[in-house]
Amino acid sequence: MIHLLVDAYNLLHQMEKNCRNFPSQRKLPRNPSLEDRRRWMMDLLLEYRNLKEVELTLVFDGAEVASLLPNRTKFGNLIVLFSEETDSADALIARLCAESPGSYYVVSSDLDVQLAAKNHGCTSLRSEEFSQKVFQSLENQAALSSSDDFVEEEDLPLYPRVSTKKRGVARKKPKSERRRRQVLKNL
Predict the structure, then answer these.
(1) Could you give the CA distance from residue 41 to residue 14 in angstroms, rounded to a whole number?
(2) Distance, CA of 11 to CA of 37 (rounded, Å)
(3) DSSP character at residue 124
């Protein structure tokens, strides 16, 4: 199972930008507090987690919540971590990657976090890509659940036509790009 380690405030800002492009998704209330924005994002990620069956760990900067919340909590099936007041979420993500090399897919647009993940054998995704993937998946799920037009299996051909004609120039992408595309495809 894929385990995503998310720089949460980084993703929150991207999701707020991208929610305008997906009209069927729940919108943020007017003038939301930080807690409302966090809860909105966690609700969407919980839906995504249940849809795609991935493990999600959200890492927030603890300096913004001081000591009001415990350092580790659960929100549904999501694991929510808050860094110490003196520490940042970026440092906590780097430490988690160092403790379990290669076991996480790190979601962050911060280049330092991406570099730390790469140095410890973890794959990194930009927050913009992951945010779009979340909204597209939820949008597709909403369209499927509201659609009553099903194609009967009887209407489909028994053996689909397969063409052996080659298309395009055969150029292989670099391994890092192929790996990143595979991760996006699996999410």
Answers:
(1) 10
(2) 11
(3) E
Token pair 């897919």 is found at 105
Each residue's pLDDT tens digit, 102-119: 888 999 999 999 999 999
- Are the beta carbons of 122 and 30 closer than 8 angstroms? no
Q: How far apart are CA 183 and CA 38, in angstroms?
A: 25
pLDDT of residue 152 exceeding 90, the answer is no
Least trusted range by pLDDT, from 40-44, 63-67, 132-136, 137-141: 63-67
Please report the pLDDT score of residue 181 as a whole number: 83
Q: With H, G, I as helix, E, B as strand and everything else as coil, classify residue 123.
A: strand
| CATH of region 1-27+41-144 | 3.40.50
Give the list of residues 6+ apart from residue 180 with CB closer than 8 angstroms, or none.
123, 125
